[in-house]
Amino acid sequence: MERFKAWWDRPEMRDALAHRDIGTVFRLLVEEGVSQREIAQVTRQNQSEISEIIGGRRVMSYELLERIAVSLGVPRGHVGLEYGVVSPQPAQDEAAKRASFLARAAEAVVGQPVFGEAGEVALTAEETPVPAQVGPSDVVMLHRVLGDLTGLESQFGGGVVLAAVEGQLRWARRLLGVAVRDAVRPALFEAVALLHRRASSAAFDMGRLDRARKHLLAALELTQDAQNLPLQAMLFYCAGRMEQYHGPPDAALRLFQFGYPVALASRSPRLCALLEVREARCYAVMGNRESAERALSSAMENFHAEGDLPVWLEFFDEAELLAAVGVTWAELGEWTRAVAAIRRSLRHRGDGVALARSFDLAELATCHLRSGDVDEGVRVATRSLDLVEQLNSNRARDRLGPLERAARRGGSETSSVVHRITETRERKVTAS
């Protein structure tokens, strides 16, 4: 709009626009005498939303950011928005499209152009429209999609779902920029945050750590805006889990410990147990047996305590707890206790969790080999490899590393297993 044009090049306004700090942009407009009501009318938002943005709520939707910029007449370059280049397609009427399809279909089946020469049939990407207002049914749909993607990752690996979940996220994040009732907003933010968490998990499973961290940060921003403390604590668990396998143990421990006060404040003992059992492994790796055993004891107690259990925390069941306990005992060199815990974990595993079973079996085989039970170690290692080779997961292949090191100590008795592990680890997979 012309009346705002003179303000966009002022230093303070340019700085706010460069950082996409829309709250400061709106505040500066108000200081110039523009009412919140007028800003709301111009940008097609509710006045309460303008007030929330001025109060600190971030504008994270690209679509909403673009709408604000266009409505207020902000030069697109000031906020880092670029126009996409679209190649115009020649217009065709339905009759021409139908004839082109028939000719192409016949040529594909018969092998020659029986209905004349077939033109190229171009597939153009079209954005799925978002509703004018987000309601409860939209949130339910996001959770159903999330459940399906989670099940696919658990059974086949992150490579199967990474592209799909990121595609779903592009649409879901557009929902953040449309009208939404206050009663629905927290549930919407949680659903989109959980999609980011699933994308992070899939990226982590494929060894794409930078991508995984970016999704976690996006999820943390959403939980901060919605003041969703329980989910925030779980995201610190996710971040720490990555560091456990790709960084020093003290880095992972700091993340688990950072999330623990948040878990306490959320009054969910199960959430506290999730962080404590991971802390235990960090202490074990660092050689602090006393702290490791204390953390294990507290985790077991909290796991069985009464308290809130959000749906997204149901993955942390008896099998997950026992697997984590077994890994910690293995780090402490307590092979008998480790084997017992991991065997119990495998008995509790349901169907459709091939990824987790592959981890358990690899850890169990390692324990048997390290304790001198070579025959059982080879047998269980073979079961683990049978699973891993079917998974689209680089993490499952990386988790064979300790098993390979243990098997190399077995000499000729384990040479065939070592060869198979080496081949499997070298065959890295890519996302579908």
TrEMBL record:
Bias (Basic and acidic residues): 399-411, 420-432
HTH cro/C1-type domain mapped to chain residues: 24-79
Name recorded for this polypeptide: XRE family transcriptional regulator
Region (Disordered): 399-432
